[in-house]
Amino acid sequence: MVVAVGCLIVPFLLFIGASWLAYDEVKEQSNERLQRTLDLLYVNVRTTFETEYLVTTNVAELVDDYSNSEIRANETKLHEQLKRLVELLPQVEDVWVLDETGAPLVTAKVYPLPAGFNYADRPYFKAHRDGKERNVSELTHGRVKNIDYFQYSVRRQKPDGSFNGVIAVSILPSYFSQVFGRASEGQKTVASIIRADGEILARYPGTGPGDRVGPNTGFMKTTAAHPDEGSYSLGSGVVDGVERIVFYRKLPNLALYVLYGAPTSSVRDAWLDRMSSHLIFGVPATLGLFLLALLASRRAMQESRALELLRQEQMRREMAEESLRQSQKMNAIGQLTAGIAHDFNNLLTGIGGAVEMVGRRVTQPSVEVTRFLDLARSGVSRAATLTQRLLAFSRQQPLQIESIEANKLVAGMSELLRRTLGEKVKIETVLAGGLWRAKADVAQLESAILNLAINGRDAMVAGGTLTIETANAHLDDAYAAANAEVTPGQYVMVAISDTGAGMDQETIARAFEPFFTTKQRGQGTGLGLSMTFGYVKQIGGHLKIYSELGHGTTVKLYLPRALTEGAAAAESIAPHATAAAGSGPVVLVVEDDPVVREFAISACREIGCTVYYAENGASAIAQLEAHDDVALLFTDVGLPGNMNGRQLAGVATERWPHLKVLFTTGYTANAIVHHGVLDHGVNFIGKPFSIAALAAKIKSIGF
Asked: Which SS3 state, helix, strand or coil, does residue 53 take?
């Protein structure tokens, strides 16, 4: 009898103990899963508000040179610029620029502005009028558009610091609701964005204007005690009567919290599922303590292996998520910089062209005039270089890809590097035998190696050794899974290593961001690494930084292997000379920007061309019909109306087969460039261009 009772009691006590331990383990795993999901939502929300900050900064740069009356007078132009700025941002419903009275001046998506609207009564407008710099408003119902949104807004100031109005970005709560819905792990999970005062801005499931949490709720009490992050229990008194555990985290520099919660019953259900499986094996254990011990031991070993596999999978997932977040961040910045660089190239074409024409017209300039002209040319050149680096970072520059020998290119740069880096830096090269040929744009690759070498020199203040190494490399599926935008396959590696101060992990994480630099003010633009990053990604390669504080840095460039040989033809540069009128071809210039069009016309005439011009595709066809002697169509890729430059060229060459075409643009357009490489047979000159470069290009076409 004693043995029989023991066989019943011992398994029962063991089962109770195992249940208690299992419950704590299931609860911990559930909380970890909730925190990982909150991490994903937090990064998405933070990136979104950082994007809105960039939008308001760019809008401020567009309108700060105008008075409020001038903004209203230039509404059409500014509306188009604002529209281009936000058209690729799904979370942005509109961008508003208000004057000091609350009247709207211009928006990104409403044109023309309807009369009679004023927003001086909005709380966010009053806050800015009273001196607040940044603000996130409550959820409100739109007056112009019958939708719900909230505003991310900044204060506009006059030069004397007085209030000049507001820039407001309207954000759709439905955008976040969709993001939260995709990330949620069950029908009863909840996710939301809540202001510190309890105002609910977005929630899954959805919300409406005026929804807020009360002052005595768990959210308000817990955030008061732990303002940065934490968790609290949501009792059964809520609307749907479901008890939940909720985790939250505060956004930096904003009084906003991101929350994610799940029912506490999910822990109990998971625990019951686990213990049910234990119970199935526990009943036979009553037949003998030996069988129970054996079964428990086997179960423990299986769980240990499963937990180890789970931890490994968790580590791989965290690495992949971090790589994906960094990639999304860089892509968002790249979209903004590409648009800015495009407009900047048009401005530089007009400025540089005007300076060049003045230099040609003044036959015997004084020393002072010559000095100022040189200063202007230098400024245009530096600005053009800056925009090219921005386009390189955003992967919006046309490339001439060819099959190259990396060893030959590195060896050819040795003398240039020695002169550039100085005597304190020792240069060593380790060139691999049997190196594959690589696909690259030679000029861009040389610039990338030179930039990395200069960065290495600057990191070695007292001098040191710079090593350039080449090797064949294979990036496998596991490496590609852990690094975003990497395609498994064969690559040619070019590694640049220095013995300098090295970088910490935080610096490495931001190293590719435009204008980020650790150098002293005036010693660098912060575009060298970002340009290299954009170029390598554009050709389908990969870039990786390995660094340790006090032990130097290695930057590895992985260039795609070239399986076929071939090279792009180089262009010759014609000397600066003014050609006789009529000595060049008859040219039709098609350009919608009046400043750029005027310079293009003058430049063509300067090299002896007879010129006709048009501002869009329809008028260009009319000019071709009126003048059958046109031999060259010189057109911008981006044109207003229903016909872009490539479509215009297709129609024109079909009707006039003898006609030759030369394209120009301020950034890569999909009409003539695909996968970062110019289409075969396309004649192209980038903005800004000089008269000499245009003459050389026209000559290379065959005139």
From this structure: helix
Phi, psi of 239 (to 5 degrees): -60, -45
Rg for the chain, CA atoms, rounded: 32
Q: Please, is 544 exposed, middle or buried when counting C-beta atoms within 10 Å of its C-beta (0-12, 13-18, 19+)?
A: middle
147 to 11, 51, 123, 140, 192: CA distances (angstroms): 62, 22, 18, 8, 19
Residues of the chain below pLDDT 70: 1-20, 22, 186-187, 207-210, 235-240, 274-294, 296, 319-345, 380, 382-400, 514-528, 530-531, 535, 564-582, 666-681
What is the predicted pLDDT for the residue at 594? 87
- pLDDT, residue 501, reads 85
**Residue 324: per-residue pLDDT:** 59
Task: State which fold the 402-560 domain adopts.
Answer: Heat Shock Protein 90 (3.30.565)
Reported as type and span, the H/E element at residue 621 is helix 617-626
Check if CATH label 3.40.50.2300 holds for domain 586-701.
yes
Residue 173 CB contacts under 8 Å (≥ 6 apart), including other chains: 139, 148, 149, 150, 193, 201, 202, 203, 206, 207
Cross-strand pairs, 191: 204, 260
Regarding pTM above 0.85, the answer is no
* Distance in angstroms (rounded) separating the CA atoms of residues 272 and 295: 19
Residues 6 or more apart whose Cβ sits within 8 Å of residue 496: 449, 452, 453, 456, 466, 467, 468, 554, 555, 557
Strands (E), 214-279: 229-234, 244-250, 256-263
> What pLDDT, on the 0 to 100 scale, is given for residue 80?
93
Rounded Cα distance between 402 and 437, Å, is 10
Triad 351, 352, 355: Cα angle to 5°? 90
Alpha-carbon dihedral of residues 503, 504, 507, 508, nearest 10 degrees?
80
CA pair distance 548, 487, nearest whole angstrom: 27
Whether domain 1-287 has CATH 3.30.300.20: the reply is no
